[in-house]
Design a protein that fits this description.
The protein is of the alpha+beta class. The protein folds into 2 domains: 74 residues, Alpha-Beta Plaits (2-Layer Sandwich); 74 residues, ACT-like. Chain A, domain 2 (Alpha-Beta Plaits, 2-Layer Sandwich). It is 30% helix and 42% strand. It is elongated, with a radius of gyration of 19 Å.
């Protein structure tokens, strides 16, 4: 089962390395890891996506709590949360295909960032599934390169 954790950690050298080391040292599968400074420049938010059964996941959370730099750990796997990813996609775009690719980009609300003689680069932000669907539609045209940010997540605002 896929799990999403967000960590608030102290923003200093080696923190991300220790977290990644915790996963690799115990053989846990870490699918994506993203990090960025929060409103407080002393604090970094890290979003982790990992696979594992309930026992493995409980062990991961326990080990992360033990790290001295971890201020707060939130399991977003089973609560209302917002999950987004950014993708940059370079696709072959020659001749008559170019117009079709612009239409596909419009349907998915992707932004065209760069157009060259033989290819174009598009940006798409959304749920991972939306990006996967977009890539599936573009495959017949020739996807040349993909860069994905990894998931970023945040708990939804409380309503009432």
């Amino acid at each position: 089962m896929k799990r999403v954790l967000t960590l608030l950690v102290e923003n200093h050298q080696g923190v991300l390395s220790r977290i990644a080391g915790l996963f690799s040292g115990r053989g846990y599968n870490l699918e994506t890891i993203t990090a960025g400074v929060t409103v407080d420049p002393q604090v970094t938010r890290i979003t982790l996506v990992c696979q594992g059964d309930d026992n493995v996941f409980a062990q991961i959370k326990k080990q992360l709590h033990k790290l001295i730099d971890v201020i707060k750990l939130t399991d977003l796997s089973e609560m209302p949360a917002l999950h987004r990813e950014l993708a940059l996609i370079r696709v072959r775009a020659q001749g008559p295909d170019r117009g079709e690719i612009f239409q596909v980009a419009d349907v998915f609300r992707a932004r065209v960032l760069d157009v060259g003689l033989e290819s174009m680069v598009m940006e798409l932000t959304g749920a991972s599934e939306k990006i996967d669907d977009f890539l599936s539609v573009l495959l017949p045209y020739g996807v040349l390169e993909v860069a994905r940010s990894g998931l970023i997540s945040m708990e939804k605002s409380k309503k009432k």
